[in-house]
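Posted in: Structural Biology > Protein-Ligand Complexes

Title: Requesting predicted complex, BES in pocket

I'd be grateful if someone could produce the 3D structure tokens for the following input. Sequence and ligand are given below.
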Amino acid sequence: MQTIQDYITNHKQRFLNELIELLKIPSVSADPAFNQDVLNTADSVKNSLEKAGCDKVEICETPGYPIVYGEKIIDPNLPTVLVYGHYDVQPADPIDLWDSPPFEPVIKKTETHPDGAIFARGACDDKGQMYMHVKALEYMTKTGNLPCNVKFMIEGEEEVGSESLAWFVPRNKEKLANDVILISDTGMIANNIPSITTGLRGLSYVEVEVTGPNRDLHSGLYGGAVANPINVLTKMIASLHDENKHITIPGFYDKVEELSREERDEMAKAPFSLEDYKNALAIDAVYGEEGFSTNERNSIRPTLDVNGIWGGYTGEGAKTVIASKAYAKISMRLVPNQEWREITELFKNHFESIAPEGVSVKVTPHHGGQGYVTPIDNIAYQAASKAYEATFGVTPIPQRSGGSIPIVALFEEELKSKTILMGFGLNSDAIHSPNEHFGVWNYLKGIETIPYFYKYFTELSK
Ligand code: BES
Ligand code: MN
Ligand code: MN
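-- Reply #1 --
Done. Output follows.
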């Protein structure tokens, strides 16, 4: 039987070309201008699943963008792996900061990717990583190496909160029944230090609006005599952290899971260079909650960040004005046991309560989701660990990530199955940023590693 290594050698160029075609479609779920492109991407994913050997592939309609479902059931007595991924991408803005157009993929060598990396929006998050699973399936079906059943569920709204998937999953529990959920939508430490993501943070995302006078005012005639909504908003935001960078919202930390000293010591063993970290971001110091390391701050601790803030005059030159309104978008990353709806409520009550006289404040919740921690004492984790050992030659390190895939907690609730997060991206791949890319080596390594997961998971299930 042909090995996956041989299969990749023979089909490498086609694997790359197919991904490049997929990356050319601008499936930006956040912007209605791309509506038709998002739908076309779903069709393209459907076709590729059919070609890769799925017996049944469907475009499942939802109140929003469709979910592409595919399956190959070889024997109901064998285990079933459910693969989840997303075909939508983040907006490409700011486009001027891209070295090449975001939807015209090019392969260029970089310092971290000497074999080249594919530059395009969605290259790593998540089209490239999702497509590794399609190509791994192709290998397994075409060469008689599929050891168990497989289902695919690829959605088009992950980057905007997975609302339609949250609608779809409870209505299709039987169709989606599985023994493990497999996702490649995270990262790993480095190409020679593979890691398995064992945690995702939850999220609460809100928009705030501060309103002062009923119209924009001349800042000379009125300045100093009425509350300026932008001054007020920035002061309110600044007050959300104290001098130790703790979040000041009452009750915010009440349910935060505190890790034991042993767990924190274990975490600290993961290779990490603060110097490299600072150099990669061109910063002279890191910043964050007192008493915690950088890796703890961005994984096991909750945070609050302004994602955007606007109001007043931002055009050319100067305009002397006191704006009537000021706005901000704020995200809170949450950790296990924090309930996102409760945190949203705490934020809303607190933010409204600190509004000074002379303005009114409105808080509008956007979306959110629960954090997730995957256990490592189960066969899914063991199978993944053995798969990395087979292709990287070293045992992967379990590591909690700071990012969020809110739908994962819902999978567990509704489908009662665990998720295993085998991510092949690097932090330096610039997901959500200009010049997003995905290493060619990483793409092919993912395709190589995935079939081993199926093999070991099936063996360990016996
Ligand atoms: N794939 C990312 C999440 C991710 C990336 C997790 C790297 C861990 C490591 C996902 O597409 C994403 O961007 N999620 C959003 C949340 C979503 C509700 C918009 C996020 O984390 O900001
Ligand atoms: Mn993603
Ligand atoms: Mn993303």
